Amino acid sequence: MLRKYILPLFLTLLITALLLYWIGGDKKETMVTENKTVTEGDCWTGAGIYQVPVDGDGAEIRYGRELIVNTALYLGPKGTVAQITNGMNCQNCHLEAGTKPWGNNYGAVAATYPRYRDRSGSLESIEKRVNDCMERSLNGQPIDSSSREMRAIVAYIQWLGKEVPKGTRPKGTGIKDLPFMTRAADPAKGALVYTNTCQKCHGANGQGQLRQDAKRYEYPPLWGPHSYNTGAGLYRLSRFAGFVKNNMPNPANYHTPVLTDEEAWDVAAFVNAQPRPVKDLRNDWPDIRTKPFDHPFGPYADSLSEQQHKFGPWQKTK
């Protein structure tokens, strides 16, 4: 009599165990060490405006987010707070207010700063990193670290990353690295990609499109006097190529990329071969051995030319 119940019970337990294993099988978890990537299910995605608290620090966080989304309204050429940037918004490079997976987001900033950076050869705070963007990507001037604006931007970035364990980088943060090509990135091929895919939004001359209020861009300029300068992160081809591969043309994302890897490398070469403001980089990378493989300006610790460092191929320089 007892045997009649044991077999069904055993089968039920077995099926339950298999289901639990199958459900959890796609979820990968990696314990974290200093500055290592954390993989837990899908990519990190930041919280939206409706998750910002309504009390406490909510007002400051919300103002910080607003400064990221509409930087030009406050700090652009016609800014209401100061006129110190080129008219682009932080969100032009840090997509969806710094929350989009592989959209150069802020997911790991609070968890990894302060940190030592080879570019400056020093320990940097979040404030220093923000001002780097002000001076490079927005081709402007730094803002006071104690100002209301800086405090709000930092509060927003810290709020976005408040659940990320210290010293970790969740999957999907920053920009995804693309595989190297066996040839150099080609600006001529990139020009065709730009004409067919990018020009309709960013303009035939890379000038972007202003909104009706003429105070901010609907689509940012990719070169020329109002774009990022030669010290910006996106001036490195690997950063630009990884950025456009998983985000452009909008609303492309890492699930549904439009460009191939080669098209992304080539259009990066084309855009970054165009004229733009020049940044004094003499104090960058005081130890030249730590320069990235695609940093386009010498001197270098190897014998390769600036041309190869900028456009590749890079197999020998990584």
Derived from helix and strand composition plus strand pairing, the structural class reads mainly alpha
Main beta sheet: 2 strands, parallel
Question: Helix count, per DSSP?
Answer: 11
Main-sheet strand order equals 1-4
Explain what you see:
The chain is mostly helical and 318 residues long. The chain folds into 2 domains: 49-170, Cytochrome c-like domain (Cytochrome Bc1 Complex, Chain D, domain 2, Orthogonal Bundle); 187-311, Cytochrome Bc1 Complex, Chain D, domain 2 (Orthogonal Bundle), CATH 1.10.760.10. The chain is 36% helix and 5% strand. The chain has 11 helices and 6 strands. The chain has helices at 2-24, 58-69, 71-75, 95-98, 109-112, 126-135, 148-160, 187-202, 237-245, 261-272, 306-311; strands spanning 36-38, 115-117, 122-124, 168-170, 209-210, 217-219. Strands 1-4 form a two-stranded parallel sheet. It has a two-stranded antiparallel ribbon with strand order 2-3. Strands 5-6 form a two-stranded antiparallel sheet. Strand 2 (115-117) and strand 3 form a beta hairpin. Helix 2 crosses helix 7 (148-160). The chain is globular and about 55 Å long. Mean pLDDT is 90; it is low at 15-40.
Task: Outline the secondary-structure elements.
Layout: H1 2-24, E1 36-38, H2 58-69, H3 71-75, H4 95-98, H5 109-112, E2 115-117, E3 122-124, H6 126-135, H7 148-160, E4 168-170, H8 187-202, E5 209-210, E6 217-219, H9 237-245, H10 261-272, H11 306-311
Parallel strand pairs: 1-4
Antiparallel strand pairs: 2-3, 5-6
